[in-house]
Amino acid sequence: MAKTDLKTASVLAFERKLDPSDALFSAGRWNERGNGDRWPTLGVREKSVRGTISNRLADKDQNNAAKLDASIQSPNLQTVDVATLPNDADTLRVRFTLRVLGGAGTPSACNNADYQQKLQSTVKQYVDQTGFAEPARRYAFNLANGRSLWRNRIGAEQIEVQVRYLKQGETAQVWTFNAHDFSLRDFVEKPAHAQAHLPALAAVIEQGLAGKDYVLLEVVAYARVGDGQGVYPSQELILDKGDKKGQKSKTLYTVGDIAAIHSQKIGNALRTIDTWYPHEEGTDIGPIAVEPYGSVTSQGKAYRQPKDKVDFYSLLDNWVLKDKAPDIGGQHYVMATLIRGGVFGEKD
After folding, report:
1. What is the 3-state secondary structure (H, E, C) of 172-209?
2. Cross-strand partners of 183
3. Whose CB has fewer CB within 10 Å in the chain, the N or C terminal residue?
4. What's the CA gap between 265 and 270, in Å, rounded?
5. CB burial class (10 A; 0-12, 13-18, 19+) of residue 307?
6. What average pLDDT does the chain have?
7. Does the pLDDT at position 194 exceed 70?
8. Strand, helix or coil at 20?
9. Per-residue pLDDT for 344 more than 80?
10. Is the CA virtual torsion 314, 319, 323, 328 positive or negative?
11. Count of C-beta atoms within a 10 Å radius of residue 110
12. 252: Cβ–Cβ under 8 A, 6 or more apart, which residues?
């Protein structure tokens, strides 16, 4: 088939190759983290509070003192979920497992055999020339720096991350990291004392992505935040709130009765490795999560615009259909998006 006749498959899907579990919470004392497996799990409880009106007033009410006073007198009653450490525990323990799967770039569904053959040829060329070393190093970096703790990382006095490589249910290797030795802003190598174990962990992840070994990691993070301090599981998105007044205004995620972080949120933290997106000098916000359009929902912005031909679909089509390989950063980004997984078929 002539290259000009090749079209993107209308059905094209990829399974994710970094497969984390939910992250469960438990609590204990920092000096007793050697017995962390025996720490009691952490639950979620309800709290009812009386808030005050603090939202921005409409323009027509800016100078209406009587209306503001009337609003202030109306209590803002709320019932919310909260999660806190016990008063005799100063450390949060967060545990999840991570499977690293091979076959990156091989679609789980594709209705165009010629396109699949060309795609896999392109991926093989990348693997032969470059390999998964750089994405694997960045995934390992995000395990070491405790990014998966999200808000629980902020303000923690000490953070230790233990990564265990499991084989047939037994621990084959253990790496321990001080999360504060690793930046959240870049992936620049640190002094030897901070980087001693990182290359070994990255090599294991690379082996998993290349399909050369079965890789299952257990990740346990300890964050010393203080006795009785609040911690932050994922918040649930309640789509159907109904019409009943006085409903809970914040619902936290639990697995059984254990506070937890969504596996999707853990995955987002691990794939926050995209520093190859276009940005002007002085406007660098650090790495963003690998997404087809470079979307950052907290900012309401997409950093990879199709009009600039730097989004995933533009780069992939140029690479596969037109044999125009992007620069090395663009190649890493495209492969990281395939590792992320998703449905990428051409619209009919």
Report:
1. EEEEEEEHHHCCCCCCCCCCHHHHCCHHHHHHHHHHHH
2. none
3. C
4. 9
5. exposed
6. 89
7. no
8. strand
9. yes
10. positive
11. 21
12. 44, 81, 82, 83, 233, 234, 235, 236, 259
* HSE of 136, CA atoms in CB hemisphere, 13 A: 24
46 bridge partner residues: 81
Long-range contacts from 288-292, C-beta under 8 angstroms, 24+ separation: 290/333, 290/336, 290/337, 290/339, 290/340, 291/337, 291/340, 292/337, 292/342, 292/344
- In what order do the strands lie in the sheet containing 76-82? 45-51, 76-82, 248-250
Cβ pair 249, 79 in contact under 8 A:
yes
Query: How confident is the model over 15-27, as pLDDT tens digits?
Result: 999 999 999 999 9
The Cβ-side half-sphere exposure at 256, using a 13 Å CA radius, reads 7
Name 70's Cβ contacts closer than 8 Å, sequence gap at least 6: none
Is the C-alpha dihedral spanning 165, 169, 171, 172 positive or negative? Answer: negative
Cα gap 59→29, rounded to integer Å: 51
Residue with tokens 């609040």: 230
| Residues 213-248: tens digit of each pLDDT | 999 999 999 999 999 999 999 998 877 665 555 577
Phi, psi for residue 235 in degrees, rounded to 5: -100, 135
Q: Tens of pLDDT along 255-309?
A: 999 999 999 999 999 999 999 998 876 667 899 999 999 999 888 899 999 999 9
**Maximum pairwise Cα distance, the chain:** 77
Residue 270 and residue 144 in contact, taking contact as beta carbons nearer than 8 Å? no
* Rounded distance between C-alpha atoms, residue 339 and residue 135, angstroms: 10
Nearest to 105 by CA among 128, 122, 82, 84: 122
Q: How many Å apart are CA 193 and CA 320, to the nearest integer?
A: 42
303 contacts 288 by C-beta, under 8 angstroms: yes
Q: Please give the structure tokens belonging to residue 136.
A: 């694997």
Closest CA to 2 of 315, 348, 316, 322: 322
Q: Which of 22, 71, 33 is nearest to 51 (CA)?
A: 71
Cβ(247)–Cβ(120) under 8 Å? no
